[in-house]
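Private note to self, pasted from the team thread so I don't lose it. Backbone tokens:
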């Protein structure tokens, strides 16, 4: 027969005391649950793979090196080849083929923007209880006000809506492109944008620190730097007087100013007591533009191309919230810019992804715990408006699984397949390195390349003829993506966009 334990009689006073202690402990546990972290996302523009100190650059970036050394360096991280596509995938979590933005970028005169039925990252962060702020470059369309950052989830906005404007005057083609919220910002001429954006960011941090609200902070800071035009206060170039190439010298000064900005922002957060509960993400939007001073060595190609130099981006995550076991580490797990949407919303903010149609994956466990990435495949793009003319094409495929004249690229596991015209594919060493540029010996009309990117990250050995089985499998994957893609939306210029109709300011016209 089973033995039963006798009941113990507790005095009422003990139960009362125990009950109070229990309530106090439960309250303490609730209070000590992890807070939603502040999130700062810094996006550099046209920042080359070789142009950060920890990649062996002659350009010194002590602040970014320090942050990366205390965090996780993303060394298998991918972005898009140019501005709008990367920003669209960051804000929507979707491939270009699912937003109609497969071709080139949104120009200032174009009646186009990130589709208005796509829920943005900022909207989801706001829904999760965050105060949302943006400072810098939008480049996701502005022809109607519904497209503007202030209408797509950001509480505050300071910056410019197009691209390629001047750093001191904030003009593009002699017309103002600078906004504070939705109003033209006309009182900042002569102030260098990298420094100005930094000051605005520090102001937001100070304001947030002084507020009694328990809201966490989401600060999206897409800098103008280091996109051309090559402009920077002269004292930043003085340490690089030895660089003979004037574009590279000016670019180096711009990088130095950007690094100082990152250091000033994180230092301000630390001084305000915000850093201890902050996750900082740093990313480029595409590879460096070689003719404007950038460099992607030893990767092949540059901005605008589907070669690694155009799409393999600089990126790192830094935070005191990262477990000690991953601080100071490198991850070579596959991560893409579209992954930030679910990672920030679900992985960090604890928000809901309901209503979002995503191509991105939540990779927070990959970054914070070293787990394998849930991503095994990556569509770089399919652009059916950029094709190789059949008269110049040399077919290498016997079957017609996917039209190889179309500009496209896909990464699956270790393999990368490129079709059509991928863009400039030279290997360009840093100026003054003494290394000769290497021009590929591809035959005229070549349209299909296959690389084992894990074994050959710099794309020297095309294996398309040796592995037709892999080529065929990846061509089938491209066709599958193509079958599910939206038509390209790339309207012509609208004359109503001309700034002369808007007080010499770039503005909406619908």
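Design output:
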């Amino acid at each position: 027969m089973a033995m039963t334990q006798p009941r113990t009689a507790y005095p009422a006073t003990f139960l009362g005391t125990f009950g109070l202690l229990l309530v106090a402990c439960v309250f303490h546990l609730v209070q000590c649950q992890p807070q939603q972290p502040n999130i700062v996302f810094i996006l550099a523009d046209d920042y080359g793979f070789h142009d950060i100190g920890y990649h062996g650059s002659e350009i010194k970036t002590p602040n970014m090196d320090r942050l990366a050394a205390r965090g996780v360096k993303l060394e298998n991280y991918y972005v898009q080849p140019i501005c709008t596509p990367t920003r669209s995938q960051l804000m929507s979590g979707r491939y270009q083929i699912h937003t109609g933005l497969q071709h080139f970028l949104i120009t200032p005169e174009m009646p186009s923007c990130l589709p208005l039925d796509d829920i943005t990252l900022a909207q989801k962060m706001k829904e999760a209880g965050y105060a949302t702020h943006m400072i810098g470059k939008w480049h996701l369309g502005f022809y109607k006000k519904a497209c503007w950052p202030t209408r797509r989830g950001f509480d505050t906005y300071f910056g410019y809506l197009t691209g390629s404007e001047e750093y001191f005057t904030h003009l593009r083609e002699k017309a103002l492109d600078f906004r504070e919220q939705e109003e033209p910002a006309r009182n900042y001429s002569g102030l260098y944008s990298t420094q100005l954006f930094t000051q605005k960011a520090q102001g937001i941090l100070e304001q947030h620190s002084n507020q009694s609200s328990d809201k966490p902070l989401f600060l999206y800071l897409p800098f103008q730097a280091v996109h051309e035009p090559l402009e920077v206060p002269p004292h930043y170039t003085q340490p690089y007087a030895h660089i003979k190439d004037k574009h590279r010298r000016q670019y180096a000064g711009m990088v130095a100013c950007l690094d100082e900005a990152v250091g000033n922002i994180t230092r301000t957060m630390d001084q305000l007591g915000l850093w201890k509960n902050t996750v900082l993400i740093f990313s480029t939007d595409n590879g460096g533009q070689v003719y404007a001073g950038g460099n992607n060595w030893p990767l092949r190609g540059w901005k605008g191309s589907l070669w690694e130099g155009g799409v393999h981006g600089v990126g790192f995550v830094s935070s005191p919230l990262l477990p000690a076991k991953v601080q100071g580490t490198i991850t070579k797990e596959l991560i893409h810019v579209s992954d930030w949407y679910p990672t920030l919303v679900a992985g960090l903010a604890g928000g809901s992804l309901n209503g979002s149609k995503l191509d991105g994956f939540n990779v927070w466990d990959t970054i914070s715990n070293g787990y394998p990435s849930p991503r095994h495949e990556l569509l770089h793009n399919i652009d059916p408006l950029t094709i190789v003319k059949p008269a110049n094409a040399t077919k290498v495929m016997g079957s017609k699984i996917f039209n190889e004249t179309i500009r496209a690229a896909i990464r699956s596991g270790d393999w990368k397949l490129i079709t059509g015209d991928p863009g400039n594919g030279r290997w360009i060493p840093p100026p003054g390195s003494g290394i000769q540029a290497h021009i590929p010996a591809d035959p005229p009309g070549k349209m299909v390349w296959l690389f084992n990117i894990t074994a050959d990250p710099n794309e020297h050995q095309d294996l398309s003829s040796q592995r037709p089985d892999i080529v065929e499998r990846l061509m089938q994957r491209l066709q599958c993506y193509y079958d599910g893609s939206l038509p390209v939306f790339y309207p012509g210029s609208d004359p109503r966009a001309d700034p002369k109709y808007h007080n010499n300011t770039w503005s909406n016209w619908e």
